[in-house]
Design brief:
Its EC number is 6.3.3.1. Pathway: Purine metabolism; IMP biosynthesis via de novo pathway; 5-amino-1-(5-phospho-D-ribosyl)imidazole from N(2)-formyl-N(1)-(5-phospho-D-ribosyl)glycinamide: step 2/2. This protein is an alpha+beta fold. It folds into two domains: 4-160, PurM-like, N-terminal domain (60s Ribosomal Protein L30, Chain: A), CATH 3.30.1330; 174-331, Alpha-Beta Complex (Phosphoribosyl-aminoimidazole Synthetase, Chain A, domain 2). It is 31% helix and 24% strand. The chain has helices at residues 11-26, 65-72, 78-91, 111-128, 189-195, 208-212, 220-227, 242-246, 268-275, 280-284, 302-311, and strands at residues 53-61, 96-106, 131-139, 149-160, 175-180, 202-203, 206-207, 232-237, 255-259, 291-297, 316-324, 329-331. The strands form three sheets. It has a six-stranded mixed β-sheet. The protein has a four-stranded mixed β-sheet with strand order 1-4-2-3, covered by helices on one side. Helix 1 (11-26) packs parallel to helix 4 and helix 3 packs parallel to helix 4 (111-128).
């Protein structure tokens, strides 16, 4: 008789993985979560205090950064990346993350690796104030190779309808504030992996592989705090497509973002990649270049907001301004 285990799916290992995962998920659960992990559906109560609440959702994955995690056998940070990619996106519309669900797929499930991934997801949820209320772990022998893992997830947040940030008020003369990234974040790794084959080579006294696994910065808490005091007209999460694709996404028609490339010190990792043969144009169309999140604000709030961000522990810079025109983005 053939069994599911003979076919490559170890149910007992799955049970052990869920047991370990639950310990991390518990750390994120708030009073609005109405049931526990293991039910057929996760339940989350809409918070009180909203007159006309709007739910904002976003989904993303970690991408080929997972290949570096696999080669270094280090899986405890990529879950942070998974959360960050979604919560930073919904934050761009002013949404406070409520909850998160993850999806892990693999060829052969190892409970400890899956638990390490969820450990990172849990940390990402804590950093963003979200509850990890459910997920799915799929063991798919013959579809994924043994040792391969894929990680994705989605976040749901909430914003008062009258306070949705959609860029419609952005006007000529507004200022662009860039907030420092923690590194490459989670985009462009197919290119990075073409350029860097030896993950143990030295980079400023550290192994380059460890640098490449630095998790994506989560901007939720400082930005939500900033929104309590200041009007933010538009926000952009700098992900795949870099400056060139993502900054125009927050702009209304007929407006252009002028970016001053020398307005801040670009982290050395991006200069290093350029020295390996990537053009500057390609870099700005692929990577965050040291700026992970961009705000568009009234010019009279510039100094106050920069000080507020510094007080919140963020490195931020005026990186440009808005002008009229159809170019959408201009790098100077």
């Amino acid at each position: 008789m053939i069994t599911y285990k003979n076919a490559g799916v170890n149910i007992e290992e799955g049970y052990e993985a869920v047991k370990l995962m639950k310990n991390y998920a518990k750390e994120t659960i708030g009073s609005l979560v109405l049931n526990s992990i293991g039910s057929f559906g996760a339940m989350f109560e809409i918070p009180k205090g909203y007159e006309n609440p709007v739910l904002v959702s976003g989904t993303d994955g970690v991408g080929t950064k997972l290949d570096i995690a696999s080669k270094l056998n280090k899986y405890d940070t990529i879950g942070i990346d998974c959360v960050a990619m979604s919560v930073n996106d919904i934050l761009c519309h002013g949404a406070r993350p409520l909850y998160f669900l993850d999806y892990i797929a693999c060829g052969k499930l190892e409970a400890n690796i899956a638990a390490d991934i969820v450990k990172g997801v849990s940390k990402g949820c804590i950093l963003s104030g979200a509850s990890l209320i459910g997920g799915e772990t799929a063991e798919m022998p013959g579809f994924y190779k043994d040792g391969d893992y894929d990680v994705a997830g989605f976040a749901v947040g909430i914003v008062e309808k009258s306070k949705i940030i959609d860029g419609k008020d952005i006007d000529e003369g507004d200022v662009l504030i860039g907030i420092k990234s923690s590194g490459i974040h989670s985009n462009g790794y197919s290119l990075v992996r073409k350029l860097i084959s030896d993950l143990n080579c030295d980079f400023n006294g550290e192994k380059i592989g460890e640098i490449l696994l630095t998790p994506t910065k989560i901007y939720v808490k400082p930005i939500l705090e900033l929104m309590k005091k200041y009007k933010i007209k538009g926000m952009s999460h700098i992900t795949g497509g870099g400056f060139i694709e993502n900054i125009p996404r927050m702009l209304p028609e007929g407006k252009t973002a002028v970016i001053k490339k020398n307005s801040y010190k670009m982290p050395e990792i991006f200069n290093y990649l350029m020295k390996l043969g990537v053009s500057e144009e390609e870099m700005y169309n692929t990577f965050n270049m040291g700026i992970g999140f961009v705000l568009c604000i009234n010019n009279h709030d510039e100094k106050s907001i920069l000080k507020a961000l510094k007080d919140l522990g963020e490195e931020a810079y005026k990186i440009g301004y808005i002008t009229s025109g159809g170019k959408r983005i201009c790098l100077e």
